[in-house]
Amino acid sequence: MSVHLRLHEIETYIGQYHILQGISFEVKQGEVTVLLGRNGAGKTTTLRTIMGLNQAAKGVIEFNGEEIHKNPTYRIAQKGIGYVPEDQGIFAGLTVEENIKVAIQKDNAITQERLDYILHLFPDLKKFWKRQGGLLSGGQKQMLSIARAFINDNQLLLIDEPSKGLAPIMVEKVMESIMQMKEKTTIVLVEQNFMMASTIGDYFYIIDDGKTVHNGTMNVLREDEEMRRKYLGIA
Amino acid sequence: MDVFVNLTLNGLATGMLIFLLAAGLTLIFGLMDVLNFAHGGLFAWGAYSGIWIYSSTGSFIIGMIGAVATGFLLGWITEKWIIKPVYGNHVQQILITLGLMLVLSELLKVVWGPNQISASPPDVLKGSWEVAGIVIIKYRVFIIAIGLLMFLGVQYILKKTKIGLVVRAGVMNKEMVQSLGINIQKVFMFVFMAGAGMAALGGVLLGPYSGVIHAGMGMEFAILAFIVVVIGGMGSFPGSILAAILVGLSGSFMAYYVPDLSLAVNMLLMAVVLIFRPQGLFGLKG
Question: Is the pLDDT of residue A217 over 80?
């Protein structure tokens, strides 16, 4: 399998704080790579740095072999990376339809196909097509955010804590949808919910104090209780 | 009845002029988070350049087009060379745009001299109609019509086109718009130029309305426009027209019935809105 995304020794500052102090990992095509770690470890900043929303002070980020860390955010997105932020980034005053339309880069038959697929995957979005994004429930907002990142023919999706703040039934729905999308695209997932992460993920990286400290297949982590306790605070 | 109708038309016409200035200001603030104190300067430049072209060519329409073109050009220069380096820094924005406002005002005196310049409506818009015994001044109706047309035109762009959708989304969440692959910088430029063009159109329309234009007119109207932006809700386009009409009408009626309060009424209106609805009439909370 070819490597889609490669981060090498990435360091990022936010103001005077040295948040990422050496993040390195690879994401292989067709896999779900999960970034794990405690709160404040640097997972969200890692995704934001890949998107160019925070600038990497040092290191290299390659996407399909091309360096992207010096590009502005919109160019990175145009290269085929979709982003679902932690706060979902829904345009509250726009309808569900408008939230999706604003994301469409090329309005063609493929996009229409993807839209049909998305509405099949998330029937709630079809139901509330004309409703303002701000009036949706937390789970529906999450679905909309994922749908918006998926509407273009993106090769890679960065999804930040999709289960955060959702009721268990919604977590299940979101998880199912990501499982289905996994067949069509490569995913980098930041997730605190270990059950969800271990169900969806193929490979994991643990981030601690702004550094990648461990990695392996999900099976390894499922069996290594000591590592889970040490870095994730769960048994 | 005659007085009431004329005060209403006068208030609406003034409101539309303020709206043309405030609309750009509110969109620029909402989308770009930029406090542009030089916006009044673009209004004044629109007035001077438009009236100059009008008096040179004899065509008010060409004067209006020339004013808008001047606004576009100055808007492009201002955004590219002056605003862009200070994005995200409000203190620097206030200082640099206030400085630009002074420079633009003084440049008007350099180019067209320090004296007031008189302006009158084109022949076709001079005079009045008499409807059911009520005298209606043609030029006021013209300003109201242009203001409404501009409102409907911009509203159409905002609601029915992709660029409008991007602008509305950008007002809500700039970072997310970029993450969707949209070059927000181009959108900023588009909005800034459009806002400057509208302000310049307001300026040239004001000339024949007030009869004279002067270099300080930009600052006078900019203060009213800022009041309108606060009342309407920062970033709200529909809010800006409603608030502009409110300010225009209250100014017009108060000047007739309670002249001593005519200047204070706008401040009073703004204070009341800030007390009961700090985000403005149409503004979003937070």
Answer: yes
The CA distance from A75 to A81, in Å, is 10
How distant is the alpha carbon of residue B139 from its chain centre?
18
Is B244 in contact with B228 (CB distance < 8 Å)? yes
pLDDT of residue A203: 94
**Shortest Cα distance, chain A CAs vs residue B160, angstroms:** 10
Q: Around A21, how many Cα atoms within 13 Å sit in the side-chain half-sphere?
A: 11
CB–CB of B40/B8 below 8 Å? no
Residues in chain A: 235
Give A51's contacts in chain B (Cβ within 8 Å).
179
pLDDT at residue B285 tops 60: no
Tokens coding A222? 């499922």
Write down the ipTM of this complex: 0.92
Residue A12's pLDDT is 97
Question: Using CA atoms in the order B138, B139, B142, B144, what is the torsion angle rounded to 10 degrees?
Answer: -110
Nearest to B179 among A77, A98, A99 (CB): A77
Rounded-to-integer distance, Cα B25 and Cα B18, Å: 11
The size of the A-B interface in CB pairs under 8 A is: 61
Buried b (16+ CB within 10 A) or exposed e, B3-27: eeebbebbbbbbbbbbbbbbbbbbb
Q: How far is residue B220's CA from residue B222's CA, in Å, rounded to a whole number? A: 6
Tell me the pLDDT tens digit for each residue of A102-140. 999 988 888 899 999 999 999 999 999 999 999 999 999
Contact status of B182 with chain A (Cβ, < 8 Å): yes
- Structural domain boundaries in chain B: 17-213
pLDDT at B34: 87
Chain A interface includes B180 (CB < 8 A)? yes
Interacting residues of A100 by C-beta distance below 8 A, sequence separation 6+: A115, A118, A125, A144, A147, A148, A151
The domains located in chain A, with CATH, are: 30-55+72-232 (3.40.50.300)
Residue A172 has pLDDT above 50, yes or no: yes
Helices (H) and strands (E) in chain A, counts: 10, 10
B284 Cβ under 8 Å from any chain A Cβ? yes
pLDDT score for B283: 77
Q: Which of A51, A74, A101 sits opposite B184 (nearest CB)?
A: A74
pTM over 0.90: no
Q: Which residue of A has its CA nearest to B167?
A: A102
- Would an 8 Å CB–CB cutoff place B169 in contact with chain A? yes
Helices (H) and strands (E) in chain B, counts: 11, 4
The model's pLDDT over B224-252, given as tens digits with 9 standing for 90+, comes to 999 999 999 988 899 999 999 999 999 99
**Beta strand residue intervals within B70-185, DSSP E:** 117-118, 128-131, 134-137
